[in-house]
User: Which sequence fits this backbone?
């Protein structure tokens, strides 16, 4: 792979306001594009300057001649523009090398793809909502510029000029791709197809910024209503979301589900473990360079192209067929896929072949025990099918042969060529055959040396099986199943297994519960009762994606097997299949986990199914059944809980701090003594926190008693993707629009941890206890820091000057800080500086309190009360710091690259109450908190309101914590002002206007 990136300087400040911050690059692959494309061949070398390795800058005066189809890659949070290279390489390889061989010639309208990519300077777009809006605005400007490059293209005047661009977005780049429709500079129809990888569509990965939550709400509202009519803005837009699964610990793959907002006729969500010829999970970054995955993505993008249309892509229905074929076929049985293309009829004269007629009520294996597999003579094996349209049962076939004209084996569905003029014969003379009805699907091969799909040890083998299963009733009109063996000269050694039987005989539905699985697990000493090629276990109640499981499989007594037992796990909330190969005898067992059940949202079910399906393949010629033991994987489940609820600990730690400060204020109002933060934590741990944990558990259990809504996206919607673009939507909306509602219909569906399974009532109290431990640790850390600094600065006890210069100094400090926030630095920077300032204030307060030890009791108490209160505020502000760090990181990043234009949302005076409050604490006498004592009940009531809000909505809307704290601090400032000298003077003047003041 030899990638080269050309930075297009012609897209400058005259076309975008972000020219100094972002850049547009054109990708070219030296292996293909330099040989076949002439878009850059006319450029003089003097107009191209190398700016870094593999990156060249193209002069503004150059007019690039593009002859392909435009596509744009949008990187995600801290992502690089160069991440486009793997999928672009595979798209070029497929177009120039594979496509001509697969189809004989390239399809009409096919052209290579010109991959553009935007360099967003590796911005932290997950941290700040304004970044998403800016990037979306920039991407629309990029799209307009890219389309202008094709406007004067005269390479083929018979073809229309492109009016749309293919979009691929990684991580938050997928959110940017969806948000471009909501900006004021969006060009109608400029985007028709979007492919996102590892994108958190449902929830932002970090909900610390209200702007990012608002951006998500705006995007979701637009997309929820964007498909309603044939003239809606998204009526012709397709969206496919690809997720990596459990290996992606950066983005919770549950949030990649788009089935709650996109009709099945317009898109779907799928996991890389479900993609044919990939069958592998990926982490957040490897999803862009995992070869099996990017090959599928590259092929899908090339297949979408149709240059005969102005939008450069096939109609919506055909696009969805392509996406399903590339990402779902063979592993996805939830969708109704189009059958394989019809083949010409082929006649087989039995007298021309050696042939054998077989019984159809048994399992048949190729090569038979008495068959000479070394023969070079063709041989036909003929099995009669039931002629009755009411025939029950299925036919299943599994082989390791590739099947087809160049394979040793070929499978046909045939009928007696003379049956129309004579009665049905069990032994016909001539067969009329087709091979298009069985639609063999690829599945990974499973051998005794297989370690994972397509791998033996560390070596990639790419070895696959072919599998087909049909109801006999679906094959009416076909009288025979025929297997043609062309002979050993084709040099293929392998097997083919065919089994006729009733599927129900090899399917077991187990109605176990989550508690039952946790307590007893699931054991089957003999499954199925009689070995079968395909057997299935349905677990309809295993529907919580928070739990992980481990399955141990054993099969003893089978010394020789045609293949090793294998399993496919399927869940019904998203298109998620996982294959496990060579499962028998694994000491570590087989991991079983799934996604799609996200709190705060309606539960989505595809095709009306619940739970998990486990499908097993085994060699039926061995008489031994499987032995199964299924248990809950406690450590794996803990990992899933942590990834999903990573924000809970942050919210609950602040909850602990509020409870502690509340207890301090209540105790102080009664006794006049402000208990130290550490002591109050110790008291609460022994008395109150366990009661609060019980309260959280009770709220969780009460929440689960309310029925949860399940949205059933049935097979009608799925199959509608084969028809008109809005057919599936009309079928769904005819039964009610609730299928596209965003949040759970359950009362308090947004409360606490969301509406999970009732089994998880204990999560909230457990998280709360963890939060208590974290707060204790932070208190010890802050206390140690303050005492250490105080020890080093004993002489700096701090006193208060009563002269006017002190007041002037305070006013100047606040004014300067406010000015910096309004015009230079974000308010998050000011808050962080305030926190550091507060540490210094506490060291001075500690030294001052120690110096007062020999003074009067009242002065000593006031000094220590002030110190203990300031320490509590320090702990509170420390836990507010995470709400400032993301935006501060973005500002530092922009500053580092020389971008000094800041966001208006970051230059607000919201931080002013914190500045004034902390500035007041810095003056010992003026910070006497006794003035707040008379209003302590109201102060505690405000804290109670904050605590109640955090319990109900804190996890879902965690960014509100900062603003709620600001309100409480503002209330304390109001109290301080009321008790101040200027306020008293103003009060006397208002109440006694005639009184002369001295």
Assistant:
């Amino acid at each position: 792979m030899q990638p080269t990136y050309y930075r297009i300087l012609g897209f400058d400040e005259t076309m975008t306001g972000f020219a100094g911050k972002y850049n547009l690059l054109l990708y070219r692959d030296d292996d293909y594009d330099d040989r076949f494309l002439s878009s850059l061949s006319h450029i003089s070398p003097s107009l191209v300057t190398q700016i870094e390795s593999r990156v060249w800058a193209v002069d503004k005066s150059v007019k690039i001649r593009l002859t392909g189809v435009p596509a744009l890659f949008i990187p995600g949070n801290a992502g690089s523009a160069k991440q486009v290279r793997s999928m672009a390489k595979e798209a070029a390889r497929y177009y120039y090398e594979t496509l001509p061989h697969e189809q004989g010639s390239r399809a009409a309208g096919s052209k290579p793809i010109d991959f553009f990519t935007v360099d967003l300077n590796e911005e932290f777009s997950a941290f700040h909502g304004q970044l998403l809006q800016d990037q979306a605005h920039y991407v629309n400007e990029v799209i307009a510029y890219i389309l202008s490059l094709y406007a004067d293209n005269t390479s083929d005047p018979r073809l229309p000029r492109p009016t749309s661009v293919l979009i691929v977005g990684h991580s938050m780049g997928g959110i940017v791709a969806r948000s471009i429709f909501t900006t004021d500079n969006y060009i109608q129809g400029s985007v028709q197809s979007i492919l996102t990888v590892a994108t958190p569509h449902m929830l932002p990965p970090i909900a610390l910024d209200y702007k990012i939550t608002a951006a998500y709400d705006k995007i979701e509202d637009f997309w929820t209503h964007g498909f309603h009519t044939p003239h809606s803005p998204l009526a012709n837009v397709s969206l496919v979301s690809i997720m990596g699964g459990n290996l992606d610990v950066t983005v919770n793959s549950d949030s990649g589900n788009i089935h709650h907002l996109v009709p099945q006729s317009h898109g779907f969500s799928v996991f890389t473990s479900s993609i044919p010829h990939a069958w592998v999970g990926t982490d957040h970054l490897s999803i862009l360079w995992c070869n099996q995955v990017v090959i599928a993505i590259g092929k899908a993008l090339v297949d979408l192209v149709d240059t005969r249309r102005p939008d450069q892509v096939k109609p919506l229905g055909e696009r969805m067929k392509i996406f399903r074929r590339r990402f779902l076929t063979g592993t996805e049985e939830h969708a109704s896929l189009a059958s394989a293309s019809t083949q010409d009829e082929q006649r087989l004269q039995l007298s021309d072949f050696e042939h054998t007629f077989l019984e159809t009520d048994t399992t048949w294996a190729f090569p038979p025990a008495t068959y000479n597999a070394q023969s070079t003579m063709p041989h036909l094996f003929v099995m009669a099918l039931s002629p009755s349209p009411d025939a029950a049962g299925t036919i299943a076939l599994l082989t390791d042969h590739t099947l087809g004209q160049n394979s040793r084996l070929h499978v046909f569905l045939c009928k007696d060529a003379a049956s129309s003029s004579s009665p049905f014969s069990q032994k016909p003379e001539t067969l009329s055959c087709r091979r298009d009805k069985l639609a063999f699907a690829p599945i990974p091969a499973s051998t005794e040396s297989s370690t994972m799909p397509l791998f033996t040890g560390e070596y990639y083998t790419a070895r696959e099986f072919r599998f087909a299963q049909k109801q006999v009733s679906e094959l009416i009109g076909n009288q025979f199943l025929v297997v043609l063996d062309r002979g050993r000269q084709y040099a293929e050694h392998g097997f083919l297994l065919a089994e006729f039987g009733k599927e129900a005989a090899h399917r077991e539905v187990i109605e176990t519960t989550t508690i039952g699985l946790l307590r007893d697990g699931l054991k089957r000493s003999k499954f199925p009762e009689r070995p079968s090629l395909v057997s299935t276990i349905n677990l309809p109640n295993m529907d919580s994606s928070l739990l992980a499981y481990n399955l141990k499989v054993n099969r003893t007594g089978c010394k020789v097997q045609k293949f090793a037992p294998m399993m496919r796990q399927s869940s019904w909330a998203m298109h998620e299949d996982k294959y496990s190969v060579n499962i028998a005898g694994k000491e570590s067992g087989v991991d079983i986990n799934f996604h799609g059940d996200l709190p705060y949202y309606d539960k989505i079910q595809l095709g009306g199914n619940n739970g998990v399906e486990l499908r097993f393949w085994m060699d039926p010629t061995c008489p031994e059944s499987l032995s199964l033991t299924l248990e809950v994987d406690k450590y794996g489940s803990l990992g899933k809980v942590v990834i999903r609820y990573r924000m809970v600990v942050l919210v609950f730690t602040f909850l602990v701090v509020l409870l502690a400060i509340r207890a301090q204020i209540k105790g102080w109002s009664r006794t006049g003594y402000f208990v130290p933060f550490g002591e109050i934590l110790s008291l609460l741990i022994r008395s109150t926190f366990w009661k609060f944990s019980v309260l959280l558990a009770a709220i969780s259990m009460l929440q689960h008693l309310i029925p949860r809504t399940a949205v059933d996206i049935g097979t009608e919607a799925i199959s509608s993707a084969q028809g008109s673009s809005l057919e599936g939507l009309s079928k769904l909306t005819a039964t009610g629009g609730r299928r596209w509602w965003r949040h759970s219909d359950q009362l308090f569906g947004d409360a606490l941890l969301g509406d999970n399974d009732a089994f998880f009532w204990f999560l909230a109290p457990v998280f709360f206890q963890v939060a208590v431990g974290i707060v204790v640790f932070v208190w010890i850390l802050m206390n140690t820091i303050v005492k250490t600094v105080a020890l080093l600065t004993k002489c700096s006890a701090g006193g208060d000057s009563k002269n006017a210069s002190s007041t002037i100094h305070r006013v100047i400090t606040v004014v300067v800080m406010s000015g910096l926030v309004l015009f230079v630095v974000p308010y998050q920077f000011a808050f962080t500086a305030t926190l550091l300032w507060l540490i210094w204030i506490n060291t001075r307060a500690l030294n001052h309190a120690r110096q007062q030890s020999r003074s009067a009791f009242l002065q000593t108490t006031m000094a220590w009360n002030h110190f203990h209160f300031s320490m509590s505020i320090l702990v509170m502000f420390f836990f507010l710091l995470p709400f400032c760090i993301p935006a501060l990181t973005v500002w530092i990043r922009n500053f580092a690259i020389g971008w000094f234009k800041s966001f208006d949302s970051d230059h607000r005076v919201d931080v002013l109450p914190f500045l004034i409050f902390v500035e007041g604490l810095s003056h010992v006498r003026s910070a006497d908190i006794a003035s707040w004592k008379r209003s302590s009940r109201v102060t505690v009531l405000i804290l109670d309101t904050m605590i109640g809000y955090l319990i109900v909505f804190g996890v879902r809307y965690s960014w509100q914590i900062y603003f709620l704290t600001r309100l409480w601090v503002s209330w304390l400032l109001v109290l301080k002002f009321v008790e101040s000298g200027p306020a008293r003077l103003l009060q006397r003047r208002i109440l006694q206007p005639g009184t002369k003041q001295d």
The longest helix spans residues 763-792.
